[in-house]
Every structure is written in C-alpha cells, then in structure tokens.
Amino acid sequence: MNKKSLENQFLQNLERIFHFSLAFIKSKRINIIQMKTKNLIMLLICLTGSTLFANDTAKSPVKLAAENTERLLTSLRDGDREKFVANSTGEFEQAMTPAAFDDARQKLLPILSRPSKLDFLGSLNKQTSILYLYRLRPEGIGDDSLVTTAISQGKVAGFFVN
C-alpha cells in the first residue's frame, strides 16, 4: 500500500469516528463525561496520525546533505558551476569563482568520471555548521576518497574531496 492510499484510508476512518461521535451526541445516549473522554481519544488519534504522516514526508538533515553532496559531485563532473553553487551560502558561492571551479574540476575529474558509490560515514558538529562525511568508493579497483560537505542553516557552506 502506498503512502497516499494509507493517508486516504486514515482520513476516511477519522471521518467515520467523527460522524459516529456526532450520532451519539444527537441521540444523547452518553453523558458529558463520556463525551469528553471520547473527544480526547479522537484528538489523540488525530494528533498521532498527523505526526505519523508529517514525519514520513519530512526529509532528514542527513538525507538533505546526501542530496546536496550528490548534486555537488554531479555538477563538478558535468562542469555546471551554476548547479554547483545552487543552495550554497554567499561566502561559498563567492569563494567558488569560475577559475576555482575549473581548477577543482580538472583535479577531480579522474575520480568523478568513474562509476562510484557514496557511503555516509557520519557527521560532526562544528560551531555553526554540521560536517557530513562520505566515502566515495569507485567500482572495481581504485582508492576511496573522503568527501566532506559542510551545511550551515540548510545551505552548503563548504565542500572538500580528499
């Protein structure tokens, strides 16, 4: 079952509970204390369900950092400086001049031109940034490279391949 159908099923069940509660109120079969308890239970069900779906759709910082790192590596390989500096801090964009980008690209092209896999190693908190560490592992024979992406307030603040 996909996420959309689960969400629809949850909303339909929630609507049934609501209508059932209204029917009880109209028939006056339950007293006020029971109704308050049922409303509290319904509220808890709503909050639990909305939290479940909200957490499912939100991307984790690690996943966002991985997407940024993949974008940085791909744009270096393809020679796309605009894509490389997208979603970066102003300082990072200013430091990555076209000449600096071309220099970095020429040095890293032998590594980036081979098929490889990016493995998440961990993260480090550093003052105002979080450093995300990855191992760039080439398919077949070749040395691994350490890739570090610094993220500050959701933007790329630094990038290093060793």
Defining key terms:
162 residues, alpha+beta, four-stranded antiparallel beta sheet, 6 helices, 4 strands
Rounded radius of gyration (Å) = 25 Å
Order of helices and strands: HHHHHHEEEE
Report helical residue fraction: 55-70%
Structural class from helices and strands? alpha+beta
The number of E-state strands comes to: 4
Q: Profile the largest sheet.
A: 4 strands, antiparallel
How much strand?
15-25%
Q: Low-confidence parts, pLDDT < 50 over ≥5 residues?
A: none
Commentary on this structure:
The model has no long low-confidence stretch (mean pLDDT 80). The chain is elongated and about 65 Å long. The two termini are 43 Å apart. Helix 1 packs antiparallel against helix 2 and helix 3 (61-78) packs across helix 6 (98-112). By secondary structure, the protein is α+β, with helices and mostly antiparallel strands. The chain is built from six helices and four strands, in the order ααααααββββ. Strands 1-2-3-4 form a four-stranded antiparallel beta sheet. The protein has helices spanning 3-27, 32-57, 61-78, 81-85, 90-95, 98-112, and strands at 116-126, 129-138, 145-152, 155-161. A hairpin with a 2-residue loop joins strand 3 and strand 4 (155-161). The longest helix is centred in the first third of the chain and has 26 residues, at 32-57.
